[in-house]
Amino acid sequence: MSAESLPERLDNLPVEAKEFLQLVAVDFNGTYHVYLASKDERIKMTRLSMSLLAAPFAAAVALASAKVISPSALITWEQAPAYLFAMIAAFGLLSFLPFLRLIEAVNAHMRTARALNNFRLLYVVQLKDHFSALGWSPNLPVDPRYPETYAPLAWPGVNVMMLALVNSSYIAIGTLGLLRSDPNPAVLIVIIGLLALVHYFVYYVRSNVSRKRRLPQNPFHFPNVET
Fold it and tell me: Transmembrane ranges (predicted)?
């Protein structure tokens, strides 16, 4: 059956009225599982990023413990081996992958949270007269755009931006160390800032592009309340 052949009204569907609540419960349960899965992925990507960023420190400790390099060589910029800086830059670049997945997980988390809010908001609209007679109002966000996928000051957004700053620091320090450049603090801060801006641009684009995704087919012409 194609989408065009489906009826525009629900009157002729082979579904009893008593079964509607069960169908709605299944729909809500599926959306809620997506919400939990995206939240779990966000936590896993944060842990993966922290593991990747901790790898150069673990490698340096292992090399010093095995007496491959002298611990005193890790104190100064000039005596640190080049492969250690290469390792720092490499793990900074590798951490960009969980950074991207973290953005997608945050977007999915926010979108499903918004879907849940809009889902419950439908009941508030339908039962507003009943709620008014009871003198009670539910504690629900009335803005169908809440929560936004792009929220840099919310904790998921802060998490993404802090990871971007750490990634930028690793890449900048590793690259300057490989080039044996003078570790000028001003130059280092500028490079880290530019790399962090690149990360922020990726976060901004992905958060807003995901909001403007194509809508699915709507053969029953349900009103779209999500922005």
Answer: 50-70, 82-103, 153-173, 185-205
Give a yes or no: residue 147 inside a domain: yes
Q: Which two tokens stand for residue 80?
A: 């640190």
Render pLDDT for 158-200 as a digit per residue (tens, 0 to 9): 888 899 999 999 999 999 988 888 878 898 899 999 999 999 9
For the chain, the residue count is: 227
> How many folded domains does the chain comprise?
1
Residue 113's domain comprises: 18-211
Domain annotation covers residue 100: yes
Q: Answer whether 167's CB lies under 8 Å from 96's CB.
A: yes
Does residue 227 belong to any structural domain of this protein?
no
Return the number of other C-beta atoms located less than 10 Å from residue 177's C-beta: 21
Residue matched to tokens 């507003």? 128
In a domain, 222, yes or no: no
The Cα-based distances of 14 to 7, 11, 24 in angstroms read 12, 9, 16
Which tens digit of pLDDT belongs to each residue from 84-109? 888 989 998 998 888 888 888 888 77
